[in-house]
Amino acid sequence: MIEYDGVNHRERLVEDNRRQNLLMNAGFRLLRFTAADLHQRPEIIKALVGQALRVSGTGSLAAGWSG
Questions:
Q1: What is the DSSP string of 13-34?
Q2: How far apart are CA 57 and CA 15, in angstroms?
């Protein structure tokens, strides 16, 4: 699961943390990215998402993903 923390993230931090805990306890892996990540480090996002897909056994999806 991928989450984008936008400008309202600080206002929703408690709600976001609770949802994250529920998702992780349900067995989901969660990657969180900020606007700075998206605009300044897109290659890091692509690498981390690709790695997560490979680890999860859905590597064929990562192999065909161009970003």
A1: HHHHHHHHHHHHHTT---EEEE
A2: 30
